[in-house]
């Protein structure tokens, strides 16, 4: 394995996805908060699902931990609860 491949592997390993259920109907204030969340250092992606009742958050685990991500989303006023999902390969995710 080359050094570049090793670096890419380490970078990929530090990305974590958390899944959240939105506990209230999506409104303009929540939409703005979700947009602001996308610009926060360490949060790589903040995306609504198709039904707009769940939020997927990718973050860099070398910069933030799960508790910090949850705290930031709470400070933005987002009414969320984290859910754990099981992938097809049986691995639990955020």
Q: What does the model show?
A:
With 94 residues, this protein is α+β, with helices and mostly antiparallel strands. The protein has one domain (14-93): 2-Layer Sandwich (Alpha-Beta Plaits), CATH 3.30.70. It is 33% helix and 31% strand. The chain has 3 helices and 6 strands; from the N terminus they run αβαββαβββ. It has helices at residues 3-13, 28-37, 66-75; strands spanning 15-22, 43-48, 54-60, 80-83, 85-86, 92-93. The strands form 2 sheets. It has a 4-stranded antiparallel beta sheet. It has a two-stranded antiparallel sheet with strand order 5-6. It starts with a helix and ends with a strand.
Q: Overall pLDDT, averaged?
A: 86
What structural category arises from helix and sheet content?
A: alpha+beta
Shape verdict:
elongated
What portion of the residues fall into strands of 2 or more residues? 25-35%
The total strand number stands at 6
